[in-house]
Design goal:
Structural class: mainly alpha
Order of helices and strands: HHHHH
Radius of gyration: 15 Å
Helix content: over 70%
């Protein structure tokens, strides 16, 4: 049963990541990976909110949805591409923004869950 919850969440999370990334890119261009930053920070916020949830909810939304929604590999690839193409400042900003915003979102989500 647990694996079905993870799969169910992933079925929603993967297309949501793709559609969100495309929507953000269409508004902000492709000079900076805004789409990946958006889905990763959103996933961190959701994971923070889920800290006290029942295990089935954590499997469905935490592992399944957030696991498919967020993407560390894309973040790494986009940061590497920025650095390789000479956009080192953008690469550095991407790393700093992802870490700070991701941790901030997770903390905010956990604080909201405690309220």
């Amino acid at each position: 049963m647990n694996w079905l919850l993870v799969i169910g969440g992933a079925i929603a999370g993967a297309p949501l990541r793709y559609l969100t990334d495309r929507a953000v890119r269409s508004r902000h261009g492709s000079g900076f990976p805004w789409g990946t930053l958006t889905v990763n920070v959103t996933g961190c916020l959701l994971l923070g909110l889920l800290t006290g949830a029942a295990s089935q909810v954590q499997l469905l939304l935490g592992t399944g949805l957030c696991g498919a929604l967020t993407t560390y590999s894309t973040f790494s690839y986009e940061t590497l591409r920025l650095a390789e193409t000479g956009a080192r400042l953008r690469a550095t900003v991407n790393v700093a923004a992802s870490v700070v915003a991701g941790l901030g979102a997770a903390c905010a989500g956990a604080a909201l869950a405690r309220m």
